[in-house]
Structure formats: C-alpha cells, structure tokens
Amino acid sequence: MKRRPYLTALTDAQWALIAPLLPPAKSGPQGGRPRTVDLREVLNGIFYFLKSGGEWRLLPHDLPPWGTSYC
Q1: Are 16 and 23 in contact (CB under 8 A)?
Q2: pLDDT given at position 1
C-alpha cells in the first residue's frame, strides 16, 4: 500500500490468514486472464463499505473501482 491505510484495512497478520483461502487466478488450458487488481485491496474496499454503510459508488478513489469490489 502506498497510501495511509483506512481503519478498516487488513493488517499484514490478517492478510496472512486470509490470503491462502483465496483461489489462485486461472491460467493456462483452463482459460482466464491474469489478475489486474490486488485482492487485498478488493477486500479492503468491501470492508470499508461494510463499516461505513455507504454506497458502493461512493468508495474512495484510491480503492479499487466500486464494480470490482461489489459483491
């Protein structure tokens, strides 16, 4: 992260617990494109939204686009 983290951002210890649970990007014969977004930042966007109770389209501009974080 190059910015000051939000209060809802994952710590390194939390990320170390969550990262192994996320599926790897599909590539090779199964198809799929390489990931262009950082999954940690996507989760930070989701946690920001859940804590703030705001709207998806109002996520701060330094988080991934709302359409990427929207679940």
Answers
A1: no
A2: 53
Task: State how far the Cα of 1 lies from the Cα of 48, in Å rounded to an integer.
Answer: 15
Reading the block at residue 39, the tokens are 């999954």
SS3 of 3-70: CCCCCCCCCHHHHHHHHHHCCCCCCHHHCCCCCCCCHHHHHHHHHHHHHHCCCHHHCCCCCCCHHHHC
Which residue carries 């998806």 as its tokens? 56
The pLDDT, as a whole number, for residue 71 is: 63
User: pTM to 2 decimals?
Assistant: 0.77
Residues of the chain with pLDDT under 50: none
**AA letter at 71:** C
